[in-house]
């Protein structure tokens, strides 16, 4: 053997003797892959039985019959109506029987659901899934045009809607059932179908495989046209198991949860519509978010756990001291769907020292999961992180210029692999190929990094980075600075095209009622906090920042508004 071969052999032996990856960061320098450092125990093991559907899985986790009648699944905060796990099971069986036998809904049929949160929402979703049909959900505030596009794109055969939103579906011509019985009795309703088939002893016998499509959820389309994210039963079952683990490690098994997050969104559907039912949790529902009504409900129902979004946490920081409500029952607040700034997180902890605040991160394309804080201690120590990779997840941080994987602390595009990753974008192989590579890695489009201890940090959407004089400016960083101003209630930063520098940062700002703040004052305030190339160059005052139902800033609306303002000035 030559010396070169001998050295190569020794190197191979040395590499084999190394642990597979760094035990602090989870990073494997040989592959460029970050691994989750948490393994699921037997209790949280993801089922691999191929012929297991979401509905059967969820129902199998319900409390035993003698406990199900006493255990409350949902309380409607508006009406005070409660539904036990026993009632919920019977309603699912009844509706499934009606859909299958009376309406002839069959495996693969797509059912379009247009409704705010209600005690019927889970019943509808689980009944549809139990007959092998596919659920697609929409925001009730969507326009007729947006709804028509989704009905057409998803290939929906049947729609379920509230009476208030029915007019938006009429132009599509799709057969529609109302959620509640109308006063005139001229239309079929979910309530009537459940009553007519009440007492059905079991679900229709429809073979459902984990590989079958379960849901088509539409991405929010904050930077472009929304796309139908196709999730399988395996995706949803996997994420529900991971939610079970999350609740377990957080000590939240006996919490009363509050749900203002809409169930048509991945965050709300997985948390409240499906996942928490597997743990026997009681959830207090709010049909439509209202800050004051939320505080009243927390006090009335002694809510312990509030899964939230950054705008709501910001509202708690800025306004809750002025509201006379007892929030002492609150133990935990979660944040997801959009970045939570370090400054807002720290101010929340100062105002609510006994409440745990844990940020998480996920995408519709990853079934809502990716990173999470298992420890409140870690969340306090890393307030600008969104936690560590949850079990079953691997990640890469890819250099956006070279395409090479990066080590800890280096910024690049985050890529994920997990059993929760979507199957594809519906009917859009070009976008699917651009988002999921040949090895199954999901390109998130988010710029971020993972540190030497395995904590994940999100910097910005790559498409939303402002390119100024060759520098990259993150809108989220500037928004965080703006929100630290005592007179600024909310803010958003967008790029504005500039002939000399490429793009400049422009801020849209909401100021506190009765206060006065000039454009120059805002510009100077930001300039004092950031490097010169990052400073805001223009400011526009606005009544509200447009946001999606999940709390994401709709920058495309503001970009369009800025163009109109420029045209008006010209």
Give short descriptive properties of this protein.
570 residues, alpha/beta, 18 helices, ANL_N_sf, 27 strands, 4-coumarate--CoA ligase-like 5, AMP-binding_CS, membrane, six-stranded antiparallel beta sheet, seven-stranded mixed beta sheet, CoA-ligase activity
How is this structure best described in words?
- Residues 10-18 have low confidence and may be disordered.
- The chain has a domain at 466-569: GMP Synthetase, Chain A, domain 3, CATH 3.30.300.30.
- The chain has 570 residues and is of the alpha/beta class.
- α2 (54-60) packs across α5 (121-130).
- The N and C termini lie far apart (79 Å).
- The longest helix is centred in the first third of the chain and has 18 residues, at 85-102.
- It is globular.
- This is 4-coumarate--CoA ligase-like 5.
- Residues 1-15 have a biased composition (Basic and acidic residues).
- The chain crosses the membrane at residues 257-285.
- Keywords: Ligase, Membrane, Transmembrane, Transmembrane helix.
